[in-house]
Design goal:
246 residues, alpha/beta, TIM Barrel, 9 helices, 14% strand, globular, 10 strands, 6-stranded parallel beta sheet, two-stranded antiparallel sheet
């Protein structure tokens, strides 16, 4: 036997904990949008952990050349390094959502530090954009019921999605990323790509190449693209009065 009874129990408990707190699909902690109800051939492309240059700008160039709008869930520290990139995305019709301030796993271990990290990230984006993002994607999709309740009390909607490729952050070949992403496309799908790496820089050239394959294939097959707020029929931003988490 590879595992004894205790080891098997630990594996089972770990799997259950992952499903509850980090799975893209679990609703046990509360409603966590991972797809829309759209029946038409519409998909939302989303990008996490940026802005990260030059890759976020390369993605923006590609999307602009194809007339595609997407949603970028951005890390506050990265926005501070590249505010002009975030502003460019806004000008070109993309949606900006929150993705914490530091994207540090240790901040997830206590609600007080997680809350502070969320709050700082929201404030950074609000200061730059002049309005507060109403959509938030937790780092690593880690959530619990207190976080989801607090976000919604402020009119901030937590957003999940489906990873384009579970190993995309390790940059496998573009063809592998694209093939897996295309296999997950359904009407109303929210696909998660990464244009950054935590709150640091990181190579994402293969994501850019894979994205070109995905976008061109979907366009040729008659698909269209929406931002997440459009896909779900919810606000993308709200007024500055709700800039603090209660």
């Amino acid at each position: 036997m590879i595992f004894g009874a205790g080891g098997a129990g630990l594996v089972a408990a770990s799997g259950l904990a992952y499903w509850i707190f980090m799975s893209p699909y679990s609703q046990l902690s509360g409603d966590f949008h991972y797809k829309g109800t759209e029946s038409e051939r519409v998909v939302a492309l989303t990008f996490d952990d940026g802005p990260n240059e030059p890759f976020t700008s390369q993605i923006a160039d590609l999307l602009h050349s194809r007339g595609v709008r997407a949603t970028f869930f951005q890390v506050g520290l990265c926005v501070e390094r590249n505010p002009e990139v975030t502003l460019r995305l806004i000008r070109e019709g993309h949606l900006i959502g929150g993705h914490s301030y530091t994207h540090r796993f240790r901040h997830l271990l206590r609600w007080s530090t997680q809350r502070e990290d969320i709050e700082q990230g929201q404030q950074r984006l609000t200061t730059l954009l002049g309005r507060q993002p109403a959509l938030f994607r937790p780092p690593w999709l880690f959530r619990h019921s207190s976080m989801l309740r607090t976000l919604r009390s402020q009119g901030i909607e937590p957003i999940s999605g489906e990873f384009a490729h579970i190993l995309e952050v390790f940059q496998p070949r573009p063809e592998r990323i694209a093939r897996r992403a295309l296999a997950k496309v359904r009407p109303g799908a929210i696909l998660i790509f990464h244009d950054g790496f935590n709150s640091r820089t990181g190579p994402r050239g293969r994501t850019v190449e894979a994205l070109k394959l995905v976008v061109d294939r979907l366009l040729s097959d008659g698909w269209s693209f929406a931002t997440v707020d459009e896909l779900l029929g919810i606000p993308g931003y709200h007024s500055l009065e709700k800039s603090e988490l209660d």
